[in-house]
Each structure stands twice: as C-alpha cells, then as structure tokens.
Amino acid sequence: MTQRILKGSYGYIKAQGKREWIKTLLLFCISLGMLVLGMVITKSRNPDITWGKSRNNLLTVAAVLGILPAARFMISAIMFEKAKKFCCPRELYEKVKEVCRASAGFDLFLTAYKEEYPLYSCVCTENEVLGLMAGDEKKAGRGEEHIKNILKTESKGNVSVKLFTDEKAFLERISRTPEAGEKSDELLITICQISI
User: Fold this and answer.
1) Beta carbons of 73 and 27 less than 8 angstroms apart
2) Once rounded to an integer, what is the mean pLDDT over residues 124-153?
3) pLDDT tens for residues 2-18?
4) 183/79: higher pLDDT
5) What contacts 33, CB < 8 A, 6 or more positions away?
6) Which residues on adjacent β-strands are paired with residue 119?
7) Per-domain residue ranges for the chain?
8) Which residues have a Cβ under 8 Å from the Cβ of 180 and sit 6 or more positions away?
9) Element (H, E) at 169
10) Are 133 and 119 in contact (CB under 8 A)?
11) CA nearest 156: which of 194, 113, 107?
C-alpha cells in the first residue's frame, strides 16, 4: 500500500481525489449490494411475492441510509476533481524547493462562500504568508482578504498576506525568505486547515 500524501504536500489534490472516488464507489457498491441481498432473501422466503414487493425489508432501509455517506464522499470527490486543474506543476515545485528556505505548502485549494482561491504554492515565514495563485490580480486581492480574515479569527492578525499571480515575481520574493521557524510552521498548518 502506498503512503498517504498529507495536505499541503506536492501531489495531494490528485492523490486525495482518487481516494475520495474509491470511497464513493465502495459505499455505493455496499448500498447496492445490501439492496440486492435484501430482495433475494425476501424473495427466497416468500416465493409468491413479486420482485418489486421483495424490496420491502430492513436491508433496503439500511441501503438507503448508506447512500447518505456515499453522496457526501461523492461531493468531496467532485470538489477534488474541480481542483485537479489547479495542481502545482512539477517544474514550479522544483523551483520553489530550490529557492525557498521557509515553510512551503503545495496544491492548496481554499474555498469561500462565493468563490475559490487555488494556490499552487504557499510559503509562510514568521509573520508573512506568500502564495502563487491561479487567477487575476482582483481575485488575488480577494484571496488575500479571505486569508487575513481567517488568520484574524485564529488570533494571528499581525500577519501580512501577499498572493502573486506572476510566477517570476513569486519566486524572486520567496528567495529572500528567512529560515523556517516554529511560527512559520504554525501558519502553514493553519493555511492547510482551511484548504480542502
């Protein structure tokens, strides 16, 4: 069995998306199996009833209730499928690892009420959050405000947030970051927690 990729690590979105689809398929198969098993058992005990009436049993109730967690995992799988197109490219991952000395996270997909903020990479220092985001400057500004609001609620209000849409400017800025510390790791953990 392969090792699970943690949130904030390179390749997380693709790996977790596969896991969510597998869970979804498994739960739907279990529910379908319980429905069929209940119908077969009921029909074998009462050969006079039709197949339509044979679904009136407790296993059918359990099968219907099993659809609820399956649907929840399906929604999660669809979200990861949507986020897949914003995965960090391998070349960018290599460049960030080469120039950055601070805490770095990859494949982060932050959601708000009305829009999402995909981050290819996020670098945290003691008092700064720097990210490379897909989208335009206006969306990056809204993403900065969203992250600032989250950090304020987490009692980390004295942190500056800057989201870049230009890869070259982002790489140039993170090359000047100091070594990672305990506080920078805490910031990265907070950003990972608000990501899918």
Assistant:
1) yes
2) 91
3) 578 899 999 999 999 99
4) 79
5) none
6) 108, 133
7) 12-85, 88-193
8) 101, 102, 103, 124, 125
9) helix 167-174
10) yes
11) 194
